[in-house]
Sequence to fold (237 residues):
Amino acid sequence: MNAFTRSLFTFWSSSIGKKYIVALTGIVLFLFLAGHLVGNLLVFAGRDAFNGYALFLHKAAHGLGVWMARAVLLSCLVAHVAATIALTRQNRSARQQYESKNTLQASKSSRIMMWSGSTILAFVIYHLLQFTVRAGNSYDSYVDPEFLATTGLKRHDAWRMMIEGFSWFPAVFFYLIALTLLCSHLSHGVSSTFQTLGFNSKRSRGLIQTAGKSYAILLWLGFISIPIAIYFFKFGR
Ligand code: HEM
Fold:
């Protein structure tokens, strides 16, 4: 084992090392969510704006951009989940030796985080199958009719894919549940992240909790507005 592998191993074995991995990968994932939301809200700007944005994402850096982003996101997701599971196991065995009111409270909130995290993971798998892999539907064959009429060129109609994706109640229902759990997960995750990074004073704690909650609620409102507008208010239908 060389020096680098040894220090990586030591970092992973320590509780604080794993906490850092959870925090840093969490930051990447949560920044992605803000960008993803802004892009998705373009659905309200109409077919041309949304399809132009989707095409831009797929063509960025000659098509390499989207693959690089996928590689970073997937690595962060795997590291985030693996470090969380390892930390939970480590904490559980430590708790068996020493149980107090504080450790019981910590175990309750970490259990809630594990449950919301698992539902979000199931949601991400469903979401990727629906919109990225486009399994079991004909979304791939959708061609933007306006773009074809004005330019004579074919472009994927991601706008119609989104409208049809949210025209089915079970999918909308699952999205609303998963997005609500995501909001709770983020709200708690933001404070834990800052705590791990050392912002732990009494004054900063209150400020961070409020910022975390506000950010989570803003994301929640933004994301749920899309399935709600399409399914309940017939936007685009
Ligand atoms: C109402 C909420 C959401 C909508 C409407 C939405 C929409 C979309 C669409 C249309 C795509 C496909 C992009 C394309 O390939 O052209 C996509 C991809 C993706 N979404 Fe979402 N999304 C939502 C929420 C989320 C959430 C909450 C997460 C994470 C927890 C997420 C994670 C992803 C990921 C990882 C991809 C894959 C990006 C890629 O193609 O590589 N999305 N989303």
Q: What stands out?
A: The two ends are 60 Å apart (CA to CA). Residues 11-231 form one domain. DSSP finds nine helices and no strands in the chain. Residues 51 and 158 are 6 Å apart (CA to CA).
